[in-house]
Amino acid sequence: MITDVRVPLEHQQPYTAAYGQMLDKVRYEGAYPTRERADEAVRLVLSGLGRQLIGDERVDLARCLPREAARVLTAQIPDTQPLTGWAFVKDLAARSGASLATTRWDTGSVFAAVAAHADPELITRILHQLPTGWALLFGQAELTPAT
Fold this sequence. Notes:
Layout: H1 17-30, H2 35-50, H3 55-64, H4 67-74, H5 85-96, H6 100-117, H7 120-129, H8 134-137
């Protein structure tokens, strides 16, 4: 269960077409029953990502995303100590009250949509900025340099 403060439906602004398409992708990837459930996942995961990204990667990703998603990402103050991929999932689960499995599912579903909006080079830059474990969250192999 996600416990953020919600705006009553009658006061919500309609989504832009681009954000609606992003929600549809997340809904499809995550097999969510409603667009509202996909929106909850997007807001949870992007707010968490916003606490992890800094610098040009943060700005460039915000430019790629629909306006509503970019606002969620950039509204967060980055943490001083970035989390590993697994610690990120555990942090989101603790904040939302959801299980680790559900939170991991939400993360993968949202990051699939994020990767569809950003070019592969930007995703690579983001993954190089973050600690280990993030590539798997983006559906990529975790590559380590040969020694």
